[in-house]
Design goal:
This protein is an alpha+beta fold. The chain folds into six domains: 2-97; 109-197, Immunoglobulin-like, CATH 2.60.40; 211-336, Immunoglobulin-like (Sandwich), CATH 2.60.40; 337-372, no CATH class; 435-534, Phosphorylase Kinase, domain 1, CATH 3.30.200.20; 538-746, Transferase(Phosphotransferase) domain 1 (Transferase(Phosphotransferase), domain 1), CATH 1.10.510.10. 25% of the residues lie in helices and 27% in strands. The model is unreliable at 1-17, 101-105, 327-365 and 398-436 (pLDDT under 50).
């Protein structure tokens, strides 16, 4: 058929014919009425101008379409009807072809910048672009390790778009990515597809802590539990032995075999790597055998050993490992470079070796000790003399000031500022203002201003030190949406700069984590410094409120499993924050941002605090009892706040203690024992987790690592997630009320 059309077009171009009559047709259902067209020639011209391939005209009506319909005759409808009885035949029309015929309709598709959860795709313009109304991108899962049910992923773009970033994709998964050009909304003009394999992601579940079944001194029998991983395969499990009596730091990035650990003086090592199918069997640590390439060395008697389980995920040449908590050992992971005062070593390595000092120094130990003793004695004498001299001098100055006060006014030459030295402080007043970032530059990435475009018209909020806008970071031919905190540091006084640098330092010390709103870098101009952070389009509070939707037998468009994933992700982020000695102090649903539609990221700490307009959150309803009493925050104060946040998730954004309108009354009610009530659709096990977090004594509350384990256990071990959380409609159901005025204070930001 296409060859006939092309032949007719050739006749048109060669002989200068007007529009070619194809014949008499029953029209397709997909057509467009043009009321302004009069006559067949004018009808065909107008349809060509609107980029349609066919024009049909009969009885004074003009229609345009891209589907020719059902052919009845290759003559006009008048001739056809003169030969047969056309009475009762529906809407016959003479069909003409316009110039908008394609000789090629192929598309090409290219995929770049593949990560664990996203990629960027490019497609070409089809040869016949006239009449294309848009493009449809579809991502279909072919293979995945994720246990979540597959969801359709479809994106629709306008006809002038030829590239996009698609996310969120599942890690270590194979997709069929297709692009389809749509012609007149329903008919396919062209299609292309390509197979995509995403990269492996960090395992999303922490292994359960090994259970010690029997301790025989040189051998310890343990029971291990299987762990699921939605971000890649479970390739193996590693068993780590830690000699906790050495009080040596443990780093997950520096775990070696027994032989290498002995050589470097480390007190922890990989004892075995076992297959996933062997995980449910009892394992003997210290049996002297090889497992994988690791030697399971006999344990030293009389030493306290802790066992850690690691989940190993290997995929396409990349490996990811996550470790369980070892109960009683610094929450499982602490920081390396711990100095041992008793043996003069760091991580078990003698300091003489670290600093390349000769061991022969130890041969003259008595002389060295005598010399050090004399030096210490002299320094002590000088220190005491200095203190006595300072006291005498101070008393003379005070007496002199008292005498002068009778005759003249004392004039200070400059402000006296008390500095809390817990951040990077710019102390050299004579150095230009921009130079006080030099210490920070060593720890944070500097981004050229030419790569960054700040969207000045899209204001996200206002922070302590400036405005926060969206921006675009151009990197490796990609455009990444980011959050830009613009700080005009030259306008700041010295005290404000100190505060700003201290809060920036908090964000730098945090590092990167999947569930933290991460710092990307800084960009400087002669006028300001821009703090560049990850961008997230919404916060958890707004997402919860928007999920209040009546579906068949449900009162939430968010599933119970999604609620668990949000809670577990927040716990993982908070556990990481606490491992870096950072207390959040303002944990609630508003301080959690949602990235890629499903990943919770903790924000609103350090310099990452900013709020829109003149309303800022009032955290009274999430505050722990001990903070009301002493105004001092404890790491376990965040645990109390998390339980309130967990209740907030279960209630789909309800206001805690919504029956108490005055925030000033909240502390006294909590002191008398008031706690958030158990919702009818929240099971006892879930509510018990909240009650454990609201213990009066902070040390009796669980840690975030314990909460991760408890929530994952409820999610995975229950017969059904809805046994502990049910978003099912029932006759007396009502949403927990949301009261904005109780959660937000109306006053100027900062």
């Amino acid at each position: 058929m296409l060859r006939i059309y092309l032949f007719l077009l050739l006749l048109y171009w060669t002989w200068g014919l007007e529009y070619i009559l194809l014949g008499c047709y029953k029209p397709s259902k997909q057509n467009r009425l043009l009321k302004q067209a009069t006559g067949s020639i004018n009808c065909a011209t107008e349809c060509r101008n609107y980029h349609y391939r066919y024009a049909s005209y009969f009885g004074g009506e003009c229609y345009c379409s891209n589907d020719v319909g059902e052919e009845l005759s290759n003559t006009s409808c008048k001739i056809f009807c003169s030969q047969v009885d056309c009475n009762g035949t529906y809407a016959l029309r003479d069909v003409y072809i316009t110039e908008n015929m394609a000789t090629e309709t192929n598309l090409s598709l290219r995929i770049e910048n593949i990560t664990s959860n996203s990629c960027r795709i490019f497609w070409s313009k089809p040869a016949l672009i006239a009449g294309v109304v848009g493009y449809t991108i579809t991502a279909t899962i072919l293979k995945t390790y994720s246990n979540y049910p597959p969801t359709p992923m479809v994106w629709v773009y306008s006809n002038d778009t030829f590239q996009t970033e698609i996310s969120p994709l599942r890690s270590a998964s194979e997709y069929n990515i297709s692009v389809e050009a749509k012609y007149n909304d329903t008919n396919n003009l062209a299609e292309a597809y390509q197979i995509l394999v995403t990269k492996i992601g960090e395992p999303d579940n922490v292994p359960y802590q090994p259970v010690i079944v029997r301790d025989d001194g040189e051998k310890v029998t343990i029971k291990l539990s299987q762990t699921t991983n939605n971000n890649g395969p479970v390739s193996a499990y590693r068993i780590i032995v830690v000699n906790s009596d050495d009080n040596q730091g443990f780093s997950k990035d520096n775990i070696l075999s027994y032989k290498d650990a002995q050589r470097l003086g480390l007190s922890y090592y990989i004892a075995a790597e076992v297959r996933p199918e062997d995980i449910n069997r009892e394992f003997i640590v210290g049996d002297g055998k090889f497992y994988g390439s690791y030697y399971n060395a006999p344990l030293s008697s009389g030493v306290t050993h802790k066992i850690i389980l690691g989940l190993v995920s290997n995929f396409n040449g990349e490996s990811k490992v996550v470790y369980s908590n070892a109960s009683g050992y610094n929450n499982g992971i602490s920081i390396l470079n711990v100095y041992d005062k008793e043996d003069g070593s760091m991580n078990g390595v003698p300091l003489l070796q670290i600093f390349n000092l000769p061991y022969c120094i130890l041969d003259d130990a008595p002389a060295v000790i005598i010399g050090l003793s004399v030096a210490i004695g002299l320094l002590t004498f000088m220190l005491i003399a200095g203190i006595i001299g300072f006291i005498i001098l101070k008393s003379k100055i005070v007496n002199r000031r008292q005498r002068l006060s009778d005759n003249q006014e004392l004039t200070l030459q400059g402000p006296m500022i008390e500095v809390e030295n817990n951040g990077y402080i710019h102390e050299e007043e004579h150095i230009p203002a921009i130079s006080h970032y030099r210490n920070l530059k060593q720890k944070v990435r500097t981004i050229p201003a030419s790569q960054l475009k700040i969207e000045s018209t899209n204001l996200l909020g206002i922070g302590k030190f400036g405005k926060v806008n969206t921006g675009t970071l151009h990197e490796n031919d990609n455009l990444i949406t980011v959050t830009c905190y613009s700080i005009y540091d030259k306008r700041m006084n010295q005290e404000t700069k100190r505060g700003m640098l201290q809060e920036l330092d908090v964000l730098i010390k945090t590092g990167n984590h999947e569930n933290i709103l991460n710092l990307i870098g800084t960009s400087e101009t002669s006028q300001m410094v821009v703090i560049i952070m990850e961008y997230a389009s919404t916060n958890l509070k707004d997402l919860l409120l928007s999920s209040r939707d009546h579906l068949p037998d449900k009162f939430s468009s968010m599933s119970e499993k999604q609620a668990f994933e949000y809670a577990i992700g927040i716990c993982k982020g908070m556990a990481y924050l606490h491992s870096t000695n950072i207390i959040h102090k303002q944990l609630c649903a508003r301080s959690i941002m949602i990235s890629n539609g499903s990943t919770p990221k903790i924000g609103s700490y350090g310099i990452a605090q900013f709020f829109s307009h003149n309303k800022i959150p009032d955290y009274t309803r999430w505050t722990a009892l001990e903070v009301f009493k002493s105004h001092q925050h404890h790491p376990k104060s965040d645990i109390w706040s998390f339980a309130c946040l967990l209740w907030e998730v279960c209630s789909l954004g309800g206001t805690p203690y919504g029956n108490i309108s005055d925030n000033n009354e909240i502390p006294q009610h909590i002191a008398k024992g008031l706690r958030l009530q158990q919702l009818k659709y929240v099971g006892d096990d879930m509510y018990q987790i909240m009650l454990d977090c609201w213990q009066l004594i902070p040390d009796e509350r669980p840690a975030f690592l314990n909460l991760i384990e408890s929530l994952q256990h409820l999610r995975d071990q229950s017969h059904n997630v809805t046994d502990v959380l049910r978003f099912n409609l029932y006759s007396s159901f009502q949403y927990e009320q949301f009261y904005p005025d109780m959660e937000l204070s109306v006053r100027p930001v900062f």
